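The pair is quoted verbatim below.
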Amino acid sequence: MAESYRIAIVGSGPAGLSAAARAAQLGISHVLLEKTDHLSDTIYKYQKGKHVMATPSQLVLRSDMDFEAGKREKILGTWDDQTAGHKVNVKYNAEAKAIAGQAGDFTITTTKGETIRAETVVMAIGTQGNPNLVRCPVGEGATVQYQLDDPGEYIDEHITVIGAGDAGIENALGLAADPEQRNTVTIVNRSAEFSTAKDANIKALLAAEAIGRMQILRETTSSAIDKGMITFDTRDGEVKVRCDRVIARMGSAPPRGFVESCGASFEDKDGKKVRVAGTGIEFSSADRVSYPVLSPTFETTTPGIFVIGALAGYPLIKHCMNQGHDVVEFINGNTTLKPADEPILVGKFKDLPGKKSVDEWLEFLRTNITILDALSPLQMREFMLDSEARFYRKGETIFERNAPGSSLFAIASGSVLVQVSPADPGITVPIGSGLIFGEVGLISGRRRGATIIAAEDSVCVEISRTAALRLQSQVPAAKAAITRISTERQLLQMFGSGLTSADLGGVLDGATIIPVSAGKPVITEGEEGDDIYVIRSGSMVVEKTVGGKPVFLSYLPAGSYVGEMTLIAGGRRTATVRAAVKSEVIKLSGAAMRAVMEQKPALLEKVRRDMAGRQDVNAFIEAKKDSFSGVVDMYSSVATFLVDQGVGEATDVLLIDENLCVGCDNCEKACADSHDGLSRLDREAGKTYAHLHVPTSCRHCEHPHCMADCPPNAIHRGPDGEVFIDDTCIGCGNCQRNCPYGVIRMDSVPPKKPGLLSWLFFGAGPGPGEPSKKWSYAHAEPGVEKPKKAIKCDMCSGIEGGPACVRACPTGAAIRVAPEDFLSVSRLEREES
């Protein structure tokens, strides 16, 4: 006869253990089912000696089981002792295979064939048993594993860790911790930022990188894994490195098939059991990483079955343990219990108008903001812990043009006005309830592009950059909504022509975002196709085959589009368009765009004008391929050289014409005299092709590498595109290490020099330019060692007349240009004329 309990708890992780301990304390008949022979298998499988964090620190722990930050072994030992002390009824080696029945009468069948009956079921099974697998080809003999038990087992190996969440970072740190092991460790992160990891782990990772303990590959994915070798797709193209072992820690997904079947009804069809629609546990979406739909009391769509812990979307241990405590209280009839984070959220909502409870505010925000609609009530609580709800009066400024800021705003009620014209604040564009704004700062890190004011009394949610990135990584529907909105606005801004959001509906429905590796084409000369490609990030170069070899035509930065010629004029592609650096493009259906142009003559005219300009370039090349071929070849070679020197991701670059440069170093001296005595450029350093020299000076990249890991967020982009470092710099050196072009230096500001006239007439001071180290030491304040900080070009922002290096050049050899202005065959046309 099957054993019978009031509560059956499946899974003995932190959530399940806490639930079982609460049931034991309340004297409730219960059983805790664990598929292994030990408690908390996920933490049991943590690497040996792992330090387990107890975050968020502001959250109160209300479980009957103790938990504080410490070593894995100590925590497990404490839980073993307390499980026995609380007389928790644990059944080991009891893996649930099926859960059938209804509230008050469930039957759980184990893989061993045992049956257990329970009035209610609490599922706390986690997701670690269903890891995300590597998506690239894995060759025969290659070693790929999804778990790291003991980092000490691996000696003198080249190990790649794929995934830079908490698990991946902790594995990499463990493998690199002991220099005696002689492991060469590389950790791979698909983005420039560590959006899903805890701050403490990120800091430890960056510290290990700083001392050379490991290598971090940012904006990188694996494209092939072979025995002894791994191939990466990086910003700069394909890279192959030695690799003896891959440890993939790319997250996990709920065991959806099993969960959906719990409590479901089945019927026979053609000899097979088929689940009856509308029965079983429902998920929030069809996406693989979505979570079950839950009530505020953790109950699923199958009454009597509850879900807590990682399976509910709450992976943090303290959250899980609180849920375990609370779910048993709810089952036991405690209807007044509020979650442990209630006081924190009360504080966040206290300044909003209207008398709503925390649950009411959470539901109001979730249902009224498009990007939050797919979140469960539980996910909303966690999300709001990292976000701020704000109330703005009509006419109040939310943020101003050129203000720093990378947060995202979402409108829950009311509306805002975007002041699109700096000269006339009266020219505005409205953004209504449910939508977002501020996405430019989120995507590009640029300063605010416009002033935003409240058009009426409005409630908005300000989402920190970290919370927004985490939201997109964990909730596919939110990422899709943000992507659609940002794509729509990019198209409206780029095409103009009186287009509205309604006009672009069909185009957006078929739009896809495609990552493009450096050097890979999106359009190939001679092929068929009429789709249009919008450059979302990165940059492209356009080439045409002349005399059997590619000739560089032009450079296209983010915000440009290509492919309109075959859409309008028909025929085959007339040029090749390839990525200068790792990029993203938005592919727009040619048929959908043609339909919009038929309805919008102004758009058709704009596209035709753009097409005419490109046809002129093609015609120029064809006309000059014989008489002007040498110059065209030279220009094409120079352009290719510049792209290879990082100009492909620059927004502003310093170039020196060696035919005009006399080596006076006035550029360096002027730079130093304009910046506290420290020069931001090295004229002699850098590479030269023909007469064109690229000195060591900041490129002000579209997506700056230096911004990726700045702990105090001291690096910003100014109104003219300049990337600068403010006074909050702590001198950690992360930006210097991350810059691939060697244009950032760490140094302390030298003592103030006497004025130029004092040097001219009295010989006081070291003279123009950067003072020597000897002079600086001699005139430093006694006993005071100035801390070092990061030094880089800021394009002389705020200095009248523009960049000092250009103004000080007596021969005009030094120029600062945007790549799209310089890298174009149209320059040859001007030179010839």
